[in-house]
Design a protein that fits this description.
Layout (H helix, E strand, L loop, with lengths): L7 E6 L4 H13 L6 E6 L4 H7 L5 E4 L2 E5 L4 H8 L4
Parallel strand pairs: 1-2
Antiparallel strand pairs: 1-3, 3-4
Length: about 80
C-alpha cells in the first residue's frame, strides 16, 4: 500500500500583519491534530504575488486552491485535508 503524501499548505502573508500571525499560530495548533506541512510566503518579496494578493492576505492555499482568507477556517481546512489520508 502506498503511503499517503503529506500536503504542504501555503500561507501568503507579509511582515507586521496581525491577521497573518494569527492564522499561522492557528495552523501550528491544527498541526497537532492533522498532518500537513506549512510554508509561509512573504507576498511583498515578489511583485507578482503582491499584485495577486494585495490586501487579501493572509491567504491559505494548496495546489492553486485557496482554502481561506483573513482567518483560518479549521473545519474547512480539516475537511479539505481529509482527502489526503
Amino acid at each position: 500500500m502506498k503511503p499517503a503524501s503529506i500536503p504542504t499548505l501555503t500561507v501568503y502573508s507579509r511582515n507586521d500583519c496581525r491577521l497573518c500571525d494569527e492564522m499561522i499560530a492557528a495552523l501550528r495548533e491544527l498541526q497537532r491534530r492533522v498532518r500537513f506541512e506549512l510554508a509561509v510566503v512573504d507576498v511583498d518579496a515578489d511583485p507578482a504575488l503582491e499584485r495577486r494578493y494585495g490586501a487579501t492576505i493572509p491567504v491559505l492555499a494548496h495546489g492553486g486552491h485557496e482554502l481561506c482568507h483573513y482567518a483560518l477556517d479549521p473545519a474547512a481546512v480539516t475537511a479539505y485535508l481529509s482527502k489526503f489520508r
